[in-house]
Structures are given as C-alpha cells and as structure tokens.
Amino acid sequence: MRWIPIGLVVFGTGCTSILDRLATDHYSKNYITDIEVVDRDPKGLPAPEVQNTLLSGHEERVRNHKNGGWQVLGVTEFNTSGSTRVNHLYNLARRKGASLVVHSKKFDRREQEIIKRREYQPGERISVNGTTVQLEGRWVDVVDVVTRVYHDYRATFLRPGSE
Question: Which region, left, alpha or beta, applies to residue 114 given φ > 0 means left and ψ of -120 to 50 means alpha?
C-alpha cells in the first residue's frame, strides 16, 4: 500500500478554496464603493462576465458601459508583487451584485533584494579507513536573491442600470 501525504491530496484535487483562504484578497481589501449595496452570499450566484482590457483603455471601456446604461458599483485598485486569485475577483463581484467586471493588469516593475537567513545543515557520517565519524549539524548563513515582479491591477464592478 502506498501512502500519499494529505497536503498533496488536498492541493492535487483542484480545490482552490484552501489557496483562496491562504492568499491575500487584494480585491476586497482595496475596494472603494460608488453605490452602497447590501453584500450578498456569493455561493450559488452566477459568475460575472469579466472583460480584460489594457489599463490604458480601462476608463474608456467603463465610460462606454456607463453610456450604455450600466451603473458602477465600485472600483478596486492596487499594486502588488503577490499573486492574485481570480476567485477573489469573482466572489467580490457576486457579493456586490455585479454582473460585469472590467479588469486590467499592467506590469509596473521588477525589484531584486538580497535576503540573509540562517539554515540548519544536518551533520554527515564520514567513513575513512574503516573508521566512521559523525559530524555535528550546524547553523549557517545563507544569502538568497529574491526577485519581486510588481503589477498594477484595476477592476471596476458594474450592473445594469435598471437594478
């Protein structure tokens, strides 16, 4: 019988709810309301239409929708080097009652940083001419170069004007 670690089973099944809970919800954290609405339970509500557009054309796309009778419920804008979860975007739209989201993402910058940390190196067992010696483990300084890639995000949440 072969054993599989539980973490691999949970992450390997396609279930993203655990990853969604672990990741920062930048969309909700940075949401600014235009129209006060009562938050809904997002479970069971249909996913909104998401229109991806260049950040440079974002405002024009929103203006066209507003001229077509759509209402802006709110906007979220942020800059992060962390990953964003599309489920966070969908859940915020469902909670606010948006049926359309205009979404933009633009590369901002790449930064590198040197991070110093301590790492434990376990001892080794060495045999020389029939004599075995166990060397002790020790803590050593390690230097890593961390690269962070930043993007600007903007999402505008809309609903038909008759609601």
Answer: beta
